[in-house]
TrEMBL record:
GO molecular function, one term: acyltransferase activity, transferring groups other than amino-acyl groups
Pfam families from the UniProt entry: FR47
UniProt-listed SUPFAM superfamilies: Acyl-CoA N-acyltransferases (Nat)
Alphabetized CDD domains for the sequence: NAT_SF
N-acetyltransferase domain ranges (all copies): 151-286
Name assigned to this protein: N-acetyltransferase domain-containing protein
Coiled coil: none
Amino acid sequence: MNYHVTFDRDAQSFWDANAESLLRHESEYNLMIGITLGIISAERTWGELSCFTVRHGSKIVGQAMHTGGDKPLILSSMSPGAVDALVDATIENDFFPERVSGPAETAEYCASVFASRRGAKTSIFQRQGIYELREVIWPPPDGGKLISGTPEQRDLTLEWAEHFVRECFPEEPEPKALAEDMVKNRLGAGHVYFWETAEGDIVSMAGRNRESPNTATISWVYTPPEKRGRGYARSVVAHLSQLWLDRGKTACNLFTNLANPASNKAYVSVGYEQLLEARIYSIESP
């Protein structure tokens, strides 16, 4: 049987075809699922959506998605043969990504195939851990509480969001613009939260980035350097995760930069477990 790749720009059509396959690994594929459902619900818009479904015979064996510009091509786990078919299909649609992102082995192979077609080289842009929590391990109480961000806290949210982008994505060319997008889409929707101490000081931030049917993705975790080492990030992540479990989700998930062992340790301490390593590869122009 041969591989066959379907190209689609419609999020609903892509979801109708791939929902069952993607939801078998809901936390692992939270990014692709969340983007798709965000577009369908009109929570988010993207400049240009390109979706690819890879089949072997009648069986779906892989998916890929690109949201325009210099964003990476997002991959599900798939075999080398499926990747070869995917690369052929993207080239047929006049598309060469600058980066690819997905489960480590798939992303590495996909980047190498694209690079060989262009006479280019590849390099690891970032190693990420995808973590999942199903039950919170509570940190020691410190008298603080989780509070929802308000429009009055826009300046603080924007400042911390920009610091978050600069620390986590140092090669991001427009960190302020990305932070402004986060504030615009998350703060007004009630998806930004802070940890407030017993004295009334706001010391840490986290947000609900996206949802899938049974999970919520936590992101934008930031504590100012002078406030670190006191467990505030653990507290805000633990309580925000529990909030979404209380709202009916069966799990929460998050991405981490594996080059930052301190934050990874903090997430594990409140109940997150690593499911897989994902990698972002850059494909350098020849």
